[in-house]
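Homework help thread (please don't just give me the answer)

Our assignment gives two proteins as sequence + structure token strings and asks us to describe the second one. The first is just a warm-up. Here they are:
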Amino acid sequence: MTELMPPALPKACAEVRLAQPDDAVAGQPARFVAAPASTQEAAALLRTAAELHLTVVPRGSGSRIEWAPRPRACDLIIETRKLDQIIEHAAGDLVVTVQPGVHLDELQGKLAAEGQRLALDPPGGGTIGGILATGVAGPLRFRFGAPRDLLIGITVVIADGTVAKAGGKVVKNVAGYDLGKLFAGSYGTLGLIAQATFRLHPAPAASATVSLDRPDPQSAQTAALTIGRSPLAPSAVELDWPRADAPIRVASLLEGDESSVEERTGRMRDLLKRGDVEVAVGPFRLGRPQLGGSAPTLLRVAFWPGQLAAALGAVRTAASEHGLDPAISGSAAGVLDVSLKHGSSVDAVAGFVAALRAGLSELANADAGMPPSVASAVVLDAPSAVRDVVDMWGPVPSLGLMRAVKDQFDPDHRMAPGRFAGGI
């Protein structure tokens, strides 16, 4: 039976079409796709969706649309590709305001002309709205934080079409309800991000990487902590452990003007050579998996930085128990990406995830005064068969509070229903 377009949808938004098979969200078919060209049009579209009782999923470039559980329903996809304007770049204030459909690489190109950058470098790039909605970050997270840490203002459209704003255009403005912290990492479950304002940083004139291989998790942690606690101000401290029988590569990124980078690189070499460590200097190209797309199974492991060795050990132990040998990479700041090979059996992957979460729970409870939430494993992407048997989010503290927030912003639970933890 041919899907009929509700007449109210094209009245609210000029560009609406019937969904195609490739518009599915993590396997959940969609019915309609709309591309509003302004915040006002997006608000009208969401008001109409509310009146028609349609479930809604926002979509940017689609590079991470497969992340998180499939929504329980998806009547309407709202694309942000026409919301692609750089609204304002206040170079003197180191602030930029953009719409959600702006691609990160395009924005960085415009900022570079003024000698500035947005200190976000997630693997695979993406749109600003998608990066915010998934909370994804790359190596620069070590020094500059996640997307939410660079966000100083946000405009959103919630489920009933109401436009809400928080923050401002200057870094010191902290007035208003902190919508940014709520919407960052919310996977579209609270509403549509319509505009975002970020603090910027000067673009470095030079950069260098100091790297070394360590034989085991404990020595890798020692090296990472030595780098991170040094006065040499690394912008990133990354790890790469491609397989269990390989050494662990630890690398630090040093940025600044040419003379500073040269001098600090020499000092970093000297610091790490204490103990006869071989050090290589070269471009920063430690590889994380290109997040998004068709990863077979990809997990995000979070922990306290001082527990790096234990977290690495927990991954390897759980994997070994189930005959798996994942690639591990990520930041010494406390976030690792664990990528399983194609062809891994569903039972092995499910057993690995359960064993890893159990190991991380023991790790969290091993330190007095640390709550269980300090270590977690989230399945970002996985084949359909794995999704059917694994809780992708795992145990989440404060679930009652999160549900209360969802009820406030989306009382009918129409925004990306089921995509967030606890089926929110």
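The one we have to describe:
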Amino acid sequence: MLPNLRQAIWTAAVATTFAVFVATSVYVDIAHVRVKLVERSIEASDGRVVVSLNDRMADDLIAPWALIARVRHASATPMLFRVTVGGEPACERSVSAGGSTRIDCAVTGPWRRASEAPEIGVVAAGPWTLEYLEIATHHGNTTGPLMSYVIPADGATFVRPSRLWGFLTFAAVAALLLLGPATADPVAVQVASRVVGALALSLIAIVLVAPLVSAYRVVIWTGTVVEWVVAIGVLRLVYSLSTRITVPQVAGLLTIGMFVLTASMGTRALSGADSYGYVSQADLWLRGDLKIPQPFTVEAPWPNADRAFAPLGYQPSPQDNRVIVPTYAPGLPLLLALAKRVGGQTAMHFVVPFSTAVLVLATFGLDRRLGSDTAGLIGAYLLAASPVLVTYALVAMTDMPVAAAWAVAFYAALGRSACATP
């Protein structure tokens, strides 16, 4: 009983830590403004360099924002540098002698553009050189397996995921821990799992503690967290398959592989008039109004001008021809709207790949009930390998969600009447 209780407490603690991490340090969307003001060295005049800020992109900066400078001085002792923005003090740093030194400031004052371009001043008591100067919403960022941003500790330029993301993270991490390596697994597997877990917890601890002990905060993209959890789950599943493989497990791997393939290869932009009709209608559902006013159509000097200005997927309203309304069925747009509400704009991209994965899995279950496990796996593989399916799985159209819904409906309608034997 004690080992089970201990495992439950450990699982709850770790899963809660991950959920808190997702709720506080993960972003769905983030402001990205970066203005390079100085890229060539400027010698200070009387210990001062002043740079006029006349880039309109700076209007999008929301305090606190980052100011990054690189300075060099030849003094034998440390030199104090003071940075001002629009005449107001921003920060000051003591820079040791020798080599180039980076200065990071978090500008917390209100950002208001005056009639003239505001000035950024860097002042020190002695000769020195300004090698680089930029202002941005962030102090730095990484790409690849770890997509993250370093922003001012009090920065609010990123959109946090909804509470549902925290709940799903808690559930996924708890499931991975409860289904983790058993004591009967080889020592190498147990050690590898503990090392990976320790590294993940260490990274999360650093991210959570950073804003408490420094002027910086690290935020990580939602997709990166999802990729980590999925990767760990897939590795665990692959190990399980290598020791005791079953046909349903192979079907599960095929389903996961189909989702990963279509999600990574699919277009993330509107690729045609049909896709535009579905995605734009999703935004209308989120807005709570399915009407788009177009009063200018009544001024056009040709017949049926209201229809000429209605794109595919829309038509003039029967009640008012100065308004267009959607004509596409609301199923896919509602799914896209739900995804955007939960995970932001990027999450809409995963609706069709997820539907494709559901279709493959439902086909396996359907053929399994009609015939056998082997028949189900063959049917799922032939479907996944179909060029037609792959083509339609890469665009935001209704074909895959509708096919998945019908497959699930037929699977449920069959009940347990058919056999399911190897």
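TA reply:
I won't write it for you, but here's a hint about the kind of observation we're looking for: The first helix runs from residue 2 to 25.
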